[in-house]
């Protein structure tokens, strides 16, 4: 029962009624000040309890003062909460400031949180209600603190969900740690190549934290950081502060006026780093603070681990991509090479088209351009296998037809062993120079598109080269043809990413053979690099940024006796190409 339960009781009739604003305070104080109520008359009904005993069980303590401020009654609860208040003495003599005001107050007294509220009584008397709210305030504070921690960790999860670069993730970690968990936060990443990167955020007044970074060799790392990087959590707080100060990581914080903690950041097999947090000694790290730092470190560790894994995978991908990218043709006597390459997936930089060349011991050059089935990484890996086979096989066989059949056998063995079922189209040739500066090309075709020859006269010829796919059957039919290039003439090889490019006004029309012929007609005086670039450019213009297959172009130009191609460019006309198209189609 509380004081509110009996504030409506009337000592005259012994009944409990609804209190009014005028009667509640006056009667409550009077009842509290009365030692015992007289027994009621028999005709007034059954006896009521002693009201002084009832008041003793109120949750609130009662202090009643007369008009002169002398304490006339102190309930047992009030005696326990404010023992300085004594009946018969002035209330002011108790020295409790909160009992001198005219309104409600909340204060800490003897380690407890008290709430007092005065109520005016008749005759200028006053009653003070004193309530112990320590537990309710503690619960409210704990709830607010938990909400603040949850909100902080939610922000951490959101902010650390995007960075995929270790440097940006580390900077975000220390920036988020200040000022919620520290005035200074230092993150040290796990060592790499004998060195550790560190990032630090320092609290700035009413501004965003200032972030800087540096590198330390492993022997120079503080012992506490080494312990954190090994997964331990050092607890020698003074020792931590001294080491952090010696490392120069605590600007504005002295060793005697700061506290610090070190927690590891969880990683896959080992900690991804160690986090040092420090702040002024008047903000001591209690157990709740340490739990929050550990939860923060767990999220930071997950973000850093993801970023580090992404970095490692990116480095592996870059290395593989560099090894799988088409290699520029090797220099050859009397030959000028021109190449253009655009993979279907621009972000990967690799695809299924390839080209290249190798020098022969007799002064000639073996060259090739091809297209493997599929796209992306798998096609690029198969392309790498094909190129490695060619690099080995051209040393034992230089005749194009036989070399292409050897390559077919090697690819069949590889695809059957791995169950890939991939194949390729390819043009493989051998170029041998003449004294007059011309070139003789011996070509072998494996199901690839026919090359084009740009004659000195400006005519464009379609080389009738056919053949079967490479890597499908054990003994494919390989087409062979010989082409003679006079000085200044060019042979052009390309993949189906050129002719099958879809675009135009409707976006679904193929570029086709006729447009390719129109694009190269009149380009006979162009250097080989410019010709290859032109073919790529007109194809991409046709696509208008749409999706496309891998595009590869290889141009071989006979440079003439001086070994140099003409240095000037020739304007590109737009001749009719219907006759050339009919020849190609035939």
Automatic annotation (TrEMBL):
It comes from the Bacteria. Residues 335-558 form the PPM-type phosphatase domain. Keywords: Hydrolase. Residues 1-21 are annotated as: Disordered. Gene3D superfamilies: 3.30.450.40, PPM-type phosphatase domain. InterPro entries: Bact_Sigma-Reg, GAF-like_dom_sf, PPM-type-like_dom_sf, PPM-type_phosphatase-like_dom. It holds the Pfam family SpoIIE. The keyword Hydrolase applies. This is Serine/threonine-protein phosphatase. It comes from Micromonospora chalcea.
